[in-house]
Amino acid sequence: MTTPAFKRVLLKISGEALAANQGFGVDTARIHEVAAELADVHKLGVQLAIVVGGGNFFRGVADQARDMDRVSADHMGMLATVINALALQDALESLGAYARVMSALRINEVCEDYIRRRAVRHLEKGRVVIFGAGTGNPFFTTDTAASLRAIEINAEILLKATKVNGIYDSDPVTNPNAKRYTRLTFDKVLNDRLNVMDATAIVMCRENNLPLQVFNLFNAGDLMRIVQGEDVGTVVSADP
Ligand code: UDP
């Protein structure tokens, strides 16, 4: 078996990645496909931590929240991420990969609280840790939660799963001539306002020297290729 290129990674999955084509809810077939890819990587011996979004149910900034108080809407968004985290935990365990949801908001009847030392211990014991409820604070995103948790648990890299093959100079969905970057600096991402993660998340990566690799979760096997050290998608770091 190949030796993995990383000992500990943090993977950010958006809520939409767990939904079927209509983009809403959790699709059973889809979540089992995603979980199978994660379980393969986990079997390789990589310590795997995951931050999952909630956009397939609710986003505090979306149209569905337009008449709501922002803080209440964000609380709903954070709870949505916990639903996804529980679904992912279940799917992983059905494949034999032990997993623990840790929530930034206290919901003790359904999952553990996020406690950094305990999260690291779970990883060391070979459990997949799924961080729910984002940062636990309104006005943040799960991308920022992903940067924060990755830094806290000393992950070597933040892997951001998207619907396209990396970072492009324009939207590849609408522009067939869009060019994909293989390597970028955090400064270029910020200066050119490249659409990857929100600026807070990128700045956290830059300030803490945490490399970021953006890839397409819908390309089967790409996650495995990344943890085996292959140049997939776009790598963002401090140096070009
Ligand atoms: N959210 C929040 N604080 C956080 C993370 C998330 O308030 O630290 C809320 C916010 O309303 C956000 C929603 O949870 O819109 C879902 O998260 P996100 O939009 O990042 O999910 P994704 O787009 O990755 O599915």
Properties at a glance:
alpha/beta, 9-stranded mixed sheet, two-stranded antiparallel sheet, globular, binds uridine-5'-diphosphate
Give an overview of the whole structure.
There is one protein chain. With 240 residues, the protein is α/β, with parallel strands linked by helices. The chain is 34% helix and 19% strand. Helix 1 packs across helix 2 and helix 4 runs parallel beside helix 6. The two termini are 32 Å apart. The model has no long low-confidence stretch (mean pLDDT 96). The structure holds uridine-5'-diphosphate.
Give the SSE layout:
Elements: E1 8-13, H1 28-43, E2 47-52, H2 70-94, E3 99-103, E4 112-113, H3 116-124, E5 128-132, H4 142-152, E6 157-162, E7 167-168, E8 180-181, E9 183-185, H5 186-191, H6 199-207, E10 212-216, H7 222-227, E11 234-237
Parallel strand pairs: 1-2, 1-6, 2-5, 3-4, 3-5, 6-10, 9-11
Antiparallel strand pairs: 7-8, 10-11
Helix pairs in contact: 1-2, 4-6
The protein binds uridine-5'-diphosphate (UDP).
- Through-space gap between termini: 32 Å
| Secondary structure tally: strands | 11
Compressed to H and E, one letter per element, the order equals EHEHEEHEHEEEEHHEHE
Helix count from the secondary structure assignment: 7
Mean pLDDT: 96
Rounded radius of gyration (Å): 17 Å
- The fraction of residues in strands falls at 15-25%
Helix content: 25-40%
Order of strands in the sheet with the most strands?
4-3-5-2-1-6-10-11-9
Broad structural category:
alpha/beta
Could you list the spans in which at least 5 consecutive residues all have pLDDT below 50? none
**Largest sheet geometry:** 9 strands, mixed
Q: What form results from the Cα inertia axes?
A: globular
List of distinct ligands in this structure:
uridine-5'-diphosphate
